[in-house]
Structures are given as structure tokens and as C-alpha cells.
Design a protein that fits this description.
It is a single chain. With 315 residues, the protein is α/β, with parallel strands linked by helices. The protein is built from eleven helices and eleven strands. The chain has helices at 27-45, 69-80, 101-109, 125-130, 148-162, 180-191, 220-226, 248-255, 259-262, 284-287, 294-314; strands spanning 2-5, 8-11, 58-63, 84-89, 115-120, 136-142, 169-173, 195-199, 215-217, 229-232, 269-271. The protein has a five-stranded parallel sheet with strand order 9-8-7-10-11. The chain has a four-stranded parallel sheet with strand order 4-3-5-6. The chain has a two-stranded antiparallel ribbon with strand order 1-2. It is globular and about 55 Å long. It binds phosphoric acid mono(formamide)ester.
Amino acid sequence: MEFSYRHVKIMKTKTLKNLFGLRNLNREVMERIFEETDYFRKRIDNKTAAGKILDGKSVINLFFENSTRTQTSFELSEKMLGMTVVNFSKGSSSMNKGESLLDTIKTIESMKFDFLVVRHQVPGIPYLIERFSSSKILNAGDGTNEHPTQGLLDIYTLKEEFGDLKKLNVCIIGNISHSRVARSNIFGLKKFESNVSVCGPVSFIPRNIEGMGVNVILDTDEAIKRSDAIILLRVQLEREAGAMLSSLSEYNRHYGISFDKIKRRSGLKILHPGPMNINVEIDYETSVSDKSLIFRQVTNGLAVKCALFKIMNES
Ligand code: CP
């Protein structure tokens, strides 16, 4: 059962065919994903097999942008579940001989993969692929639009740490205007009624961001004081963020989180989707401190992906 609002389809059951973003995912589906994530997380911790429950299914990972965490954890989760895994690399593909993205997708569609994972620099590419593909699609990050698996693993990590997400004060500090991670987290956390704020230089804060139900904090000390958890973001130089700053050292002075700034703030937790730019948005001491959830996020990301494949296989 589902209804449409313009192009946005809102699932009204706990099933999931495609994962495009958290904007169109309801809370009940996210809760179901987190229940399954609990199960896979325990199996990962205990180093027990995930059951090869998708033996006989096939998946292709299409990464048109660089990745360490997302690509590796997708591939590992797929193999843990017993799928046949194919990794597509643009660099060694016939796109280098002039083949278009569309023809590439149609060619891949002809091989009838059950799942297609895609990361692409252009917002909305997963929706375009859906028009030409019968595979179930998982968005692994589409330009500045959404990064739903990152949003899910971040929210799962916050839930694991704090329990109830309602009224949890979460501040996202950094390059908000270029961040698909920020957008997915805002869409997801608002559905759990968290108090979400964003912080960064004015040039990094999108105009009308308040329309997404978030508060803007321009001072980092204020953000540290008012937050239970801070999600730090990288300055995305590949998306021309450098041109919006006077310098990276200036950014670090005003918006970078050092352990010195947070050590007296008891209970505060720090998240970062990675990759980190040490001594730009975060210092090394913070990243390895007991306030950091950063490496637990990575483990949870693996469990979230196992959960997603299991649930999507049912639809
Ligand atoms: N968080 C994240 O998407 O990291 P990668 O770019 O390494 O996948």
C-alpha cells in the first residue's frame, strides 16, 4: 500500500522495494530496519555467519564516485548474505569508449541483477535508473541529494547510544549545503522527533534550511553546549566548498572540533560519516576518544546493509 505526493512515494507498509532516500521512508520502515540491524549487529559482534539467506540472488555495485566505507560494507554485507556480487568500475568500463550512462544501465539491466547499488555524483540518478531497471535499487549517495544508508546507520548509532531519539539534541556541523549526509539525517531524525540543528559558516548553511524543521546555530561553542550529539561533516573540496571559505585553517579555528573544546562537556557524543580530514573539522584525539562513535558507526553500517537487503528481498 503506498500513495504518491508528486514524485515522492511514501511507503505505508513495513516493506521496501527501493531505497532512494530517507525523505520518502516512514518511521515504521526505519524501525523495522533497526530491528533487523540489531540481529545482524549481534552476528557481526559474535563473528557468527549471517546465514547466506540470499544465496542465489545477484547484486551489482555501481560506484561512479570514490568510496571506502560504503562500497566495502556493501560488498561485505552482500557476501555475508550469500549473494553473487559484481563490482562495476567506471574506469575499466566501456564508458571510457563513449558508452552513455543510459546504455550502460540498459546493458546491466539485461543481465537481470536482483539488486543494484549506485553511487553517482548527480542528484537523482537512482530515480533515473529505476525507469530502465527492474532491479531493486539502493542509493549509496547521489550527489548533494541523499545518502540514505549513512543516515540510517547514523540514526541507528544514536538510538543505540541514547535509547529514545525524541527531543534528542543533535547538531550537524560543517558543509551543510553540499551534504547528502546532512539531508538524510535531517529527514530521518525529524521522523523520530529529534531536535536537529545545523552549524557552520553562513556560506555553508542553505537558505531556508529552517523549512526542513531545523535550527541554525552559528557559534560552535553554543552548539557544543546545546547538543547531546554532534555529527561532524567534511569540507567537500571536490564540490567546490573551498571557494566558500577564506581558508581551511580559518575553518578549523572556528568550526573544527578539538578534544580541548569538548572534554568538559559530559555525555556529548561525536559522530562523523567519514572520510575525516584530521585537523580541519576534527582532531585525532577527538576521533579516538571515548566521546567518539565514529568507528562504531562503521560496524553499524555493515549491519544496516544486511538488514536492508533482507527486507528488500521480501518485497
Ligand atoms: N561515509 C561515506 O560515504 O564514506 P565513503 O565515501 O568512504 O563511502
